Amino acid sequence: MPEPIIQQVDASKNDCEKTALKRLLSNISREHPHLKLVLNFDDLYSDGPTIKLVKSYGYSFIMVAKDTSHASLYESVDELNKTGKVKRYCFTDEKGSQHWFRFVNDVPINKSHKETLVNYLEYVETDLKGKKYVNTWITDIQLTQENVAKVMRGGRAKWKIENETFNTLKTQGYHLEHNYGHGKQHLATNLICLTFTAFLIDQIEQLACKFFQQALEAKKSKKALWHAIRGLFDWFLIDNWEDLFTAIIEGRSASLKHLVVDTT
User: What is the pTM assigned to this prediction?
Assistant: First the structure.
């Protein structure tokens, strides 16, 4: 359900990410009223109004909170640390990487929205070579020693989402590129929505279709799989997806057993 950043009819201000988010949340809530969601945000969205908006729909959140844009939040955490209210937790995993947490609940997001309380989670991972990963999040999920690692993984999943979504769309044959406009009569926007729809269908097939899974394994990458599919469509009349994927799984020679040559 992509939400384009497009100037709305009768709007007095230019559209932006946060305004588009309002439309997106409204659409998700209407189309999927029973979903219990934890939304993942970068630092741009970690402010009082956005938190109130997300909570108004009954959703939870995990948001990046950088020190450069949340000076008041960090000052509040430091004050709580002086009184011993900030907790720490550390463990070493089976690979030898050390995971260090510092967390505290019910901290004002900033001085302008003191009534908006968030839970603060600071995290440092150090591997055997001394390489460090550092990040800080705010969330409405009550933090305990038992769940901070799970919340951390939820926060870090944002990069997994970006890599496996946007990177896939850019490099795995979907040809998604940056566009400096929405196109004549919103053509570019419509095309990108169709691309996202195709990507959604492919994701469902990758999760649930054994023939798709085996064909992808045979071709090693999605880009190669799309090339093989286009090649077969160029040469054969194909009755169903099972025959198409079987031809790819078994190889080009086997394809003649399943498909009819298009002589038109």
Answer: 0.81
